[in-house]
């Protein structure tokens, strides 16, 4: 790798100055001439049939410009092609308290709210389904969604067997079973979702606080039956997502429709209560795991079951089920592995992707389960985990391809810094250790196509350089990644690179800021586009300098190309060819195994993390206080270490919130606490010092070796905290969050956690022959091998 | 006076002083300072996270003291001076605190940033060299979901030293 001048340097985020002076324009800050305000009427019942909607009184209110119901937006949508089960406004039935049924556009918010009060909806109330267990029982009235083939309220059922389970169990000296429950929780972005639509001359423009302008673009085209060429989606400055703004939402479709009807701009900003109903957050997951180990503590076989409480709609749920079963194998070498997963519909706001999407729950279970095995057979838990760590450049039993892997180094860092091995032992104080892995973007697009996952254009003319990318900076710093990479290649400073992002009219496709994919995918696309541009600039300069042959001797850097200032080089190039554009694209390698469902889990690279949590637990009050967290994260290479550390610290904080207090729970069909006061999240005083170590394994396929940082570091924190509680008081809380009540109950009973896994009608497993551990083939070569072996890839 | 809904509404002409500028506005008395700043004065730098006084996002200064603008009615102000995020920089020169937030990455999505800046500005005026704990205590009413708070504490410490 040549000397890097910009990559690896801490540089302030390009959008930060506008944010500290109040100049950044978020979606709710947009005010257009003649703009109307929209409010949405939502179901007060968790489960009901809609018998009639009478909006005539609402329409008569002065200042009300339009009222729409499900009849106006009948086409179903959903983020996954297999789950097109939502309507912008429900017309037939409602599936959770907060499900949208009608919408009003009026001259101001107060008038719109009064109009909602005037809409009469007649419901036939149905028995609600409020838990995983109820979702598996025969429904009292009717299924939440009709299904021809699946029983009870089951949404998805999966069963897989990788490798020789029987041989694995036979080899095991010890076997252990455990049950865990991970409570649901929500993203709680500081910014409420907001969207503004404008309809002029048959063209729709939507500004939205979305993580993925492309998916919103697709949903608008589908539901409004407009060609994509007539729709422009612009990502406004983004006030936080964490996965919660990755689905297309009702309010985005509704304001668009209302703008089309009224001919005026329409804005809808959700209230905080509505944000809790929009949700798409962490699934509550009940898990059962059984593992066999040999006399050295090496895993011989594992059987993992998960049951997900999906809420009222599909959202990303079909993928979420897979994610609760796939990444177990990318931290630990599991030679034989069985996974069974079920997701049920319930009458709650739909669950979806939250930071770590479907993997924090099984990571919680797996880490604590291994801790318990270690304790049972008398091996130090860190040692037991280390003995089972995967090796770099190997292939897991479920075909996931592991490339760069910094598990060992991450573990060394946090053990050394925390003094874990030599910690003082006293009752009430303890340390816990855990590791994890996460994807640098999903290897397969959510809607099937062969096109690149990210595309970047770089333009140069006499005024300098501009990079165009569809990725949305949601605060994580994706704009910085783009600017760093283009600046590195063209030999300028990041501030010299103008950025145009997240605008479907002017930027090429990027699949958005979720799945931790932007640095890896948009980064690689930017690298390709910038390198092409560099070659053009160098060749224009070479021509003027009279250099021929090896153009590598023309130096690029420090704002110069060869004998010329960067802008002079741009002028030379423009003189030679006109204004220049180059394009770069990134398509992940095809690495999935030869079986149906192998598209979820493969990633071009995995990040790795290890954490030690130091906590105090008061046996009188049950209060757990986190004193310090040490975390090491294998980010491949830190494009901007300041921002990577910011992502790690934010992930640790969010993990602690989930571990200690955050829970989205319900009573009699109602959300228990849809407010920021009652939905507890950590404050400054609840958040400890976090010591972060970045480990750089330089991934062969990442841009300059970079991997993800936004999601992975959340994962080990949660089990490490529960392990610290065990270290402090000798009791297990096998569920999240660890509330003081649970600690006190655990002190009485020895353990708090689920007692049984419900009966599930598991299907016959899909039996998959495992790869050779050193089989690193990808793409056409791998697929040809499957074809030859008679596989169904 | 009647509003669009034919409901009586008490509107009053109020004088309000924001960032050193005087404004005379005809306002319904129930309109919050947050709404007046954003909707009547176009000062959209002040953000909102709950409009119930729970998250600290809409913090502004009233006579230098942090207040939640979603819970303040302009009729209560009686001519007292309001400072918003737009009033922190000296012309185009960022305040040391704003500079520190930029340089240390204390603003990620940036949505809580205006409220944080104002609460921290008030802290540094009252206590120019606060300890780590004093910073955490003073800002504990302001929620942030991105940063894990570490970079914000560091930025306040850096600004205190500036």
Structure overview:
Chain A is an alpha+beta fold and 793 residues long. Chain A contains 19 helices and 33 strands. In chain A, helix 13 (478-490) runs parallel beside helix 14 (518-545) and helix 16 packs across helix 17. The mean pLDDT of chain A is 97. Chain B has two domains: 11-87, Ubiquitin-like (UB roll) (Roll); 96-161, [2Fe-2S]-binding domain (DNA polymerase, domain 1). By secondary structure, chain B is of the alpha+beta class. In chain B, a hairpin with a 2-residue loop joins strand 1 (11-18) and strand 2. Helix content of chain B is 31%, strand content 17%. A five-stranded mixed sheet of chain B has the order 2-1-5-3-4, sandwiched between helices. Chain B has helices at 33-40, 96-103, 113-126, 132-139, 150-161; strands at 11-18, 21-28, 59-62, 65-68, 81-83. In chain B, helix 2 packs across helix 5. The interface between A and B is large, with 64 and 58 residues.
Question: In this structure, how is the largest beta sheet of chain A organized?
Answer: 7 strands, mixed
Which CATH class of the largest domain in chain A is shown? Alpha Beta
Distance between the termini of chain B: 53 Å
Number of helices of chain B: 5
Unreliable parts of chain A:
none
Uncertain regions spanning at least 5 consecutive residues of chain B:
none
Structural class of chain B: alpha+beta
Judging from the principal axes of the Cα atoms, what is the shape of chain B?
A: elongated
What is the domain total for the residues of chain B?
Answer: 2
Task: Identify the strand order in the major beta sheet of chain B.
Answer: 2-1-5-3-4
Mean pLDDT of chain B: 95
Biggest protein-protein contact in the assembly: A-B, 64 and 58 residues
Question: What topology emerges from the helices and strands here?
Answer:
The complex is a heterodimer of chains A (793) and B (162).
Chain A: H1 16-20, E1 36-42, E2 48-54, H2 56-60, E3 64-69, E4 93-94, E5 100-106, H3 109-118, E6 120-125, H4 132-135, E7 154-162, H5 165-171, E8 174-182, E9 194-200, E10 203-208, H6 213-224, E11 231-235, H7 250-262, E12 266-269, H8 272-278, E13 285-293, E14 299-309, H9 317-326, E15 337-344, H10 360-377, H11 381-388, E16 394-395, E17 401-402, H12 407-418, E18 429-439, E19 454-461, E20 464-469, H13 478-490, E21 497-501, H14 518-545, E22 556-557, E23 560-561, E24 564-565, H15 566-577, E25 580-586, E26 606-617, E27 624-634, H16 641-660, E28 666-667, E29 670-671, E30 689-695, H17 717-729, E31 732-733, H18 740-749, E32 751-752, E33 766-768, H19 779-788
Helix pairs in contact in A: 6-7, 10-11, 10-17, 13-14, 14-15, 16-17
Chain B: E1 11-18, E2 21-28, H1 33-40, E3 59-62, E4 65-68, E5 81-83, H2 96-103, H3 113-126, H4 132-139, H5 150-161
Parallel strand pairs in B: 1-5
Antiparallel strand pairs in B: 1-2, 3-4, 3-5
């Amino acid at each position: 790798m040549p000397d890097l001048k910009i990559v690896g340097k801490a540089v302030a985020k390009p959008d930060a100055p506008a944010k500290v002076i109040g100049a950044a324009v978020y979606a709710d800050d947009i005010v257009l001439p003649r703009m109307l305000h929209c409010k949405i009427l939502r179901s007060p019942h968790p489960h009901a049939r809609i018998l009639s909607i009478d909006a005539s009184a609402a329409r008569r209110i002065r200042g009300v410009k339009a009222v729409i119901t499900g009849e106006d937006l009948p086409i179903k949508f959903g983020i996954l092609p297999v789950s097109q089960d939502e309507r912008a406004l429900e017309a037939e039935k409602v599936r959770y308290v907060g499900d949208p049924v009608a919408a009003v556009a009026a001259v101001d918010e107060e008038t719109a709210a009064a109009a909602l009060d005037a809409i009469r909806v007649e419901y036939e109330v149905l028995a609600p389904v409020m838990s995983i267990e109820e979702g598996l029982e025969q429904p009292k009235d009717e299924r939440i969604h009709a299904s021809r083939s699946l029983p009870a309220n089951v949404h998805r059922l999966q069963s897989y067997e990788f490798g020789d389970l029987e041989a694995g169990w036979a080899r095991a000296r010890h076997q252990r079973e455990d049950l865990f429950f991970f409570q649901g929780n929500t993203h709680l972005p500081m910014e409420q979702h907001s969207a503004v639509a404008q309809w002029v001359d048959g063209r729709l423009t939507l500004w939205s606080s979305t993580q993925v302008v492309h998916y919103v673009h697709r949903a608008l085209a589908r539901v409004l039956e407009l060609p994509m060429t007539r729709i422009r989606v612009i990502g406004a400055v983004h006030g936080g997502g964490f996965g919660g703004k990755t689905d297309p939402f009702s309010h985005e479709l509704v304001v668009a429709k209302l703008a089309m009807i009224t001919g005026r701009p329409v804005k809808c900003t959700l209230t905080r209560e509505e944000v809790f109903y929009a949700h798409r957050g962490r699934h509550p997951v009940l898990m059962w795991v059984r593992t066999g180990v040999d006399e050295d503590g090496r895993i011989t076989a594992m059987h993992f079951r998960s049951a997900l409480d999906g809420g009222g709609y599909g959202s990303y749920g079909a993928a979420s089920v897979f994610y609760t079963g796939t990444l177990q194998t990318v931290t630990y070498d599991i030679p034989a592995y069985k996974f069974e997963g079920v997701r049920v519909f319930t009458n709650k706001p739909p669950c979806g992707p939250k930071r770590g999407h479907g993997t924090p729950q099984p990571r919680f279970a797996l880490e604590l389960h291994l801790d318990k095995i270690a304790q049972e057979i008398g091996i130090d838990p860190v040692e037991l985990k280390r003995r089972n760590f995967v090796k770099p450049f190997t292939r897991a039993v479920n075909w996931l391809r592991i490339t760069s892997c910094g598990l060992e180094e991450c573990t060394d860092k946090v053990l050394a810094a925390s003094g874990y091995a030599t910690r003082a032992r006293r009752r009430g104080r303890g340390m816990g250790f855990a590791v994890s892995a996460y994807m640098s973007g999903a290897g397969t697009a959510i809607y099937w196509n062969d096109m690149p996952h990210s595309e970047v254009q770089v333009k140069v003319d006499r005024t300098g350089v501009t990079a165009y990318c569809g990725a949305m900076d949601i605060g994580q710093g994706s704009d910085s990644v783009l600017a760093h990479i283009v600046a590195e290649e063209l030999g300028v400073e990041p501030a010299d690179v103008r950025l145009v992002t997240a605008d479907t009219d002017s930027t090429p496709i990027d699949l958005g800021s979720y799945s931790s994919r932007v640095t890896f995918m948009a980064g690689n696309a930017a690298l390709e586009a910038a390198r092409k541009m560099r070659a053009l600039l160098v060749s224009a300069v070479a021509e003027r300098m009279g250099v021929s042959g090896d153009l590598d001797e023309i130096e690029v850097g420090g704002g110069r190309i060869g004998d010329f200032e960067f802008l002079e080089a741009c002028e030379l190039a423009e003189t030679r060819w006109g204004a220049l554009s180059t394009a770069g694209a990134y398509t992940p390698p095809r690495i999935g195994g030869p079986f149906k469902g192998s598209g979820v889990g493969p990633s071009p690279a995995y990040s790795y993390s290890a954490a030690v949590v130091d906590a105090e637990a008061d046996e009188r009050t049950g209060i757990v206080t986190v004193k310090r967290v040490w975390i090491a994260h294998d980010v491949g290479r830190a494009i901007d270490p300041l921002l990577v550390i910011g992502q790690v610290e934010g992930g640790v904080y969010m993990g602690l919130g989930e571990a200690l207090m955050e829970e989205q729970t319900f009573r009699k069909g109602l959300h228990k606490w849809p407010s920021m006061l009652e939905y507890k999240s950590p404050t400054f005083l609840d958040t400890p010092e976090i010591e972060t170590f970045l480990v750089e394994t330089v991934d062969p396929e990442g841009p300059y070796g970079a991997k993800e940082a936004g999601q992975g570091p959340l994962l080990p924190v949660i089990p490490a905290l529960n392990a610290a509680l065990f270290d402090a008081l000798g009791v297990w809380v096998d569920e999240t969050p660890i509330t003081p009540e649970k600690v006190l109950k655990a002190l009485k009973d020895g353990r708090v956690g689920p007692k049984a896994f419900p009966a599930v009608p598991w299907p016959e497993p899909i039996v998959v022959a495992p790869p050779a551990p050193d089989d690193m083939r990808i793409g056409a070569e791998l697929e040809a091998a499957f074809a030859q072996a008679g596989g169904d890839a | 006076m009647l509003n669009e809904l034919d409901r009586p509404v008490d509107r009053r002409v109020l004088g309000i002083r924001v960032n050193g500028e005087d404004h005379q506005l005809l306002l319904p008395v129930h309109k919050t300072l947050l709404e007046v700043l954003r909707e009547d004065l176009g000062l959209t730098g002040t953000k909102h996270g709950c409009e119930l006084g729970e998250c600290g996002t809409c913090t502004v200064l009233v006579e230098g003291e942090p207040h939640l603008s979603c819970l303040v009615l302009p009729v209560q102000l009686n001519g007292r001076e309001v400072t918003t995020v737009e009033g922190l920089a000296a012309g185009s020169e960022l305040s040391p605190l704003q500079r520190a937030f930029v340089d240390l990455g204390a603003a990620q999505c940036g949505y809580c940033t205006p409220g944080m800046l104002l609460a921290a500005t008030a802290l540094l005026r009252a206590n120019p060299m606060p300890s780590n704990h004093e910073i955490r205590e003073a800002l504990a009413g302001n929620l942030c979901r991105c940063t894990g708070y570490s970079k914000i504490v560091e930025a306040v410490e850096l600004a205190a030293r500036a």
